[in-house]
Amino acid sequence: MAKNRLTTEEFKNGILAGEKSVLGRAITLVESKSVDDRKLANALVNSILPYTGKSFRLGITGAPGVGKSTFIDGFGEFLLNIDKKVAVLAIDPSSKISGGSILGDKTRMEKLVGKPNVFIRPSPAGIELGGVAQSTLESILLCEAAGYDFVVVETVGVGQSETAVKEMTDMLLFLSIAGAGDDLQGIKRGIMEMIDLVVINKSDQIEKEILGEVKSNFAHALHLFPPRAAKPDVEILSCSALNATGFDEIGQFISSYHQKVSRNGFFEENRKAQKISWMNRSLIHLVENHIQNNDKLKVNVQKFESLVSDNKLSPLDAARQIFELLNLV
Amino acid sequence: MAKNRLTTEEFKNGILAGEKSVLGRAITLVESKSVDDRKLANALVNSILPYTGKSFRLGITGAPGVGKSTFIDGFGEFLLNIDKKVAVLAIDPSSKISGGSILGDKTRMEKLVGKPNVFIRPSPAGIELGGVAQSTLESILLCEAAGYDFVVVETVGVGQSETAVKEMTDMLLFLSIAGAGDDLQGIKRGIMEMIDLVVINKSDQIEKEILGEVKSNFAHALHLFPPRAAKPDVEILSCSALNATGFDEIGQFISSYHQKVSRNGFFEENRKAQKISWMNRSLIHLVENHIQNNDKLKVNVQKFESLVSDNKLSPLDAARQIFELLNLV
Known about the structure:
alpha/beta; 13 helices; Rossmann fold; Single alpha-helices involved in coiled-coils or other helix-helix interfaces
């Protein structure tokens, strides 16, 4: 970030003017771990806040192989055709291990790449989930300030990435295919209760009867969870992302969902709760990092860990003693 | 605790001598929220630590109505007959709401109540989970110092109580009955992957075929999770707690489980990891409490919450500013 560094003002103006290259550099800035970059990032994000919040944020999850990229490519084109400006971001804590397959190859989204009203950002590689999730949240804000009114956040269903995406989006879409057994897997992974819409992809490749069965399996699985008061019932739709069929219904559901939660106030309430929750989680994250990275504390923590392991000090008393060392105001 | 207050030494000696009344008062002490009691509790728990760790700690969970009390009563008697000293504790964050039904009526354990080698402690009512869980962990230690070599920790499956019990015991037993649909509910609640043994209770009341079906449903549900390297495969057994049938098999499984994890080192490793994890969680808990209860901070946190809600400050920057207010060493 050192060379040709922009000022906060230059970043802000570029972003508000919708300049993609500045937006890209701003996202690189919020992803940076350098202390100086972080200061500039804070100032920048705070300065663009008044211009944020006006997009619809759609989280998309699903197992590898269900066609998430193809779906985002096709459905993104559908959104462009109804005059949306579409930003695509990815959150992927496993990108280091998997070699960054998620959005790593932008060219997989052939219909979107290069279009004027589209911004695609691959997943940041090699940072731990806490960091990824926070920078993705800031990237959403930057995209909104740049005028994108539909932000898609893609995740592979690894670890807590889905929870993170749920907590920064307005709606979570679960993409599946026939035969994936995702109804049960979804319950097992605890994501079924987070889902707002199920879409069965590649519906052109399966028989109508089987599609019906897959849908009823999902309906059964979703039935295990309590009814939703503020949000519309989860629907189970289907599409062929490759052939661009089924997008109309999906678009209609998202639109009516958006209308309902806007009218009953849930949309705003949820956004506020998400912000407070991000604040609190970030604070705990900072305290944990501080304890782990402070050399003086680290030695003490290790000493306490040994004492606790050897039954010489109770875990709770050790915690109290470390807490006292923190010397909180 | 003010009147007839014992000293640390008196507490310790009474506990090591196996005096139940002193043990009971010591548990009341660790459950107390008073600052003075807490200091005495810390000193006491630290002083008895060398005498702890020698029990087998069995967590028991299951939905209301599956017969947990009857099971503990019957299986406890089985344990007494093989010369175990049995302590029964409960962890129940909902006891305030439900009126303290869990172990609230000690007389429900007719076979155990009043026996010399048995100690039963009802759930502490009206404290939040963090507090309950911590005092239960300390109660386990006190029971061990008093010579109880089999500690049963009962929980109703509410919120995070099962996770808390899992994190303070050596083995988690899931009690169920036919027709409870617990195989799916268990996956949904995310506890299936924590379970070490499933026991279908009231097996005398169901047909053999149905029992087989229930067992195979559980086997199917458990099959969704990866194989266990360090721990024996989960078994699905059955019993009639009321008629005291099936206990032999359960006792044998627990015994062979204990042997396997002791030999391969998992038992000790897991205990150590549990202690470190309690230390870390207690620390975070203390920091959170501090932030919530410090008047000066509280005002600031509320100010930041407003700024964040109104898009005047980014959640992450607000967290950073609160973090700076903490003025950590």
